[in-house]
Design brief:
This protein has a single domain, classed as lambda repressor-like DNA-binding domains (434 Repressor (Amino-terminal Domain)). The protein is an all-alpha fold. 61% of the residues lie in helices and 0% in strands. The radius of gyration is 15 Å and the shape is elongated.
Length: 88
């Protein structure tokens, strides 16, 4: 029989990742970018253009492949999207 344990709100901590705190913050920031994209009805090519980022990197980040992307870079992406809000 399989035992089910209740986890915390940080899956990275539950998996005992040494970078649990950082990865959780990056996940929340990437989720915010996804919310902005949805709220503004933007396409990934539009967002990649706004951010000056290859679409492949953007899509990877939104899927959780952000280990190599700094928190500062992700925050900068949010700031660029926010400052561009009136243009789209």
């Amino acid at each position: 029989m399989t035992t089910i344990e209740k986890g915390s709100t940080n899956v990275y901590r539950d998996l005992e990742s040494p970078e649990a705190g950082t990865m959780y913050v990056k996940a929340r920031l990437a989720a915010r970018i996804s919310e902005i994209i949805d709220d503004r009805h933007l396409t990934h090519p539009q967002v990649a253009d706004i951010l000056g980022m290859p679409q492949l990197i953007l899509c990877g980040m939104l899927r959780g492949n952000f280990r190599e992307i700094s928190e500062t870079t992700i925050i900068s992406c949010i700031n660029r999207l926010d400052s561009n809000a009136g243009e789209n």
